[in-house]
Amino acid sequence: MKHGNITYAKSLNKSLHDLIDKNDSVYLFGCDINDPYGGAFKVTKGLSTQFPERVFSTPISEAGIIGVASGMAMRGLRPIVEIMFGDFLTLCTDQIVNHISKFRWMYNNKVKVPIVIRTPMGGRRGYGPTHSQSIEKLFMGVPEIVILSPSNYHDPGNILEKAVYDDSPVLFIESKYLYTRELKKPDENGSSGIFKVFLDESEYYPNIVLSNNDFEDCEVTIIAYGGMIPFVEKAAEYLMIEEELSIEIIIPSKITPFNYNICNNSLKKSGRVVIVEEGTLTNGWGAEVTSLIQEHYFNYLKCPIVRIAAKDMLIGSTKTLEEYALPDDRDIINKIMECVVKG
Fold first, then answer.
1. What percent of the chain has pLDDT over 70?
2. Are residues 53 and 18 in the same domain?
């Protein structure tokens, strides 16, 4: 397997640089993004030095940040904003739900609101209950909002560039767990470790499909996104070696609106579906995907769809409490084996 020789965070940094350099309408701002700090996770490092007039730090007012970006977007610019932690999206909910998602429709397409809201999401860093959540599900039912969450198999910088040129408001979720990990690129045979990798570019935002059996057979279909992919990958590799299970992993970059048709080929082969997310189980992304699959593919299912997610509890600061709350490869292995036995 070939590594991308670039980390998830550096891919984003490079694309931000290219976007600002090539397009005068692109601006970038948020709390503490200026040098020498360069943002909480260093994704904006070096950008304010190189583009001081179009990259700048703001006061701590998440609602104000989105409000300013909204006005800029309606005046023809393409702002990218950084909300320091995804947990803080609650502070700009009114701007997202009642403003940027509605202006284009309210004014009969006379204005566009092409905003990209970048924000790190998720746990596994010991940051505690208010800095470790995955709350993207709070915005999944809002019409006209696109939610993206690229994995380490996608090129997140490439996805970000596509988002900037999308005329819809985009919530761009960046996994804190993936920031320091190298991107995974298939070798000349289209392989990454034991997995064959298929890039599905039939949509504007690409999807990735992995197979541990060269796409010849499939006993279980896993659907997952973002920071859960390393855990899903580890579980699928274990089950291939220890249980000889053929597994396909479907990895969308766009999680809302979700195109259930990307599951078509795999699901019809397997009849067993496991959905994995880092957010809490109740009313999560997995519930919506489950509903869509039940509605459109019910006759192909051999057993009930399985959802794997964080427990419905707060995330503690200590490693033990955090690991207890969040799903990992062991949970995925156990649930898949239960699914196989049932089916």
1. 99
2. yes
Answer whether residue 303 is part of any domain: yes
Same domain for 267 and 153, yes or no, is no
Domain boundary among 148, 175, 202: 175
Number of domains, the chain? 2
C-alpha 61: how far from chain center: 24
How far is the C-alpha of 207 from the C-alpha of 290, rounded, in Å? 18
Q: Which parts of the chain have pLDDT scores under 70? A: 1-4
Asked if the bond preceding 36 is cis, omega within 30° of 0, the reply is yes
Tokens standing for 180? Answer: 């320091």
Q: Please state the length of the chain.
A: 343
Q: What is the pTM assigned to this prediction?
A: 0.97
As to burial, measured by CB atoms within 10 angstroms (0-12 exposed, 13-18 middle, 19+ buried), residue 37 is: middle
Q: What is the 3-state secondary structure (H, E, C) of 61-128?
A: CHHHHHHHHHHHHHCCCEEEEECCCHHHHHHHHHHHHHHHCCHHHHCCCCCCCCCEEEEEECCCCCCC
Domain span including residue 246: 186-342
Domain boundary among 175, 195, 220: 175
* Sheet with 191-192, edge to edge strand ranges: 191-192, 195-200, 207-211, 247-252, 220-224, 273-280, 306-310
49 inside domain: yes
| Alpha-carbon span 55 to 75, nearest angstrom | 18
- Do residues 163 and 224 share a domain? no
pLDDT score of 213: 87
| Cα 211 to Cα 179, 187, 237, distances in angstroms | 24, 15, 10
Question: Residue 85 — left, alpha, or beta (φ > 0 → left; ψ -120 to 50 → alpha)?
Answer: beta
